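Exercise 7.
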Amino acid sequence: MDLEAFHAENAPTETDETFQLENKYTLDVAVSGTVMAKVGSMVAYTGDLSFTGKASAEGGITGIIKEAATGEGTPVMSVEGDGHAYLADQQKKVQILSLDEGESITVNGEDILAFESDLSYEISTIDSLAGSFAGGLTNVYLEGPGYVAITTHGDPLVLSPPVSTDPSATVAWSGTSPSVEVNKNLSDMVGQESGERFQMNFSGGDGFVVVQPYEELA
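Solution. The predicted structure, written as tokens, is:
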């Protein structure tokens, strides 16, 4: 392939959409105002954009952290201005979701890539998982209307409750809430502090649970 063909085949797609996939791993966000994105996810940008973070107690830029009552948070940054921000996260696949008015989804904090600033959002933790993951499992609750971009290692599997999942492989859920239990079938195995010792049980409702073929926090 010559240089001109390579350039043409891999150039960004012109679109009026706020969130657009350039490929399976890269999100193109058309910023006109403010968009929230995961800290460290920017790989390139065009136009006049600024990326605002907040210094952590340990030093360095960790992003604007919206805190829950526990004081835990997920690092996100504010992308402001006019232009295009190209976002990616460790070559994970990007999934774009559109939330209507009143629709909501809860996403594992590791798997948030970006969301429109008009969305209502809250950070929370599942403290009962603190024995498996430092600080518990941090989640982001988002309510529409607006676009959300999440990431998955490989292709996601979307299941309907009732279903039990490994917390390390659980990406998101909507219309249902989990309870956490010790997986008694694995409680006597070596490595009892692994994520597989715990399970998230989803029951009831008409919602769904998103899992990935990868244990992210194990």
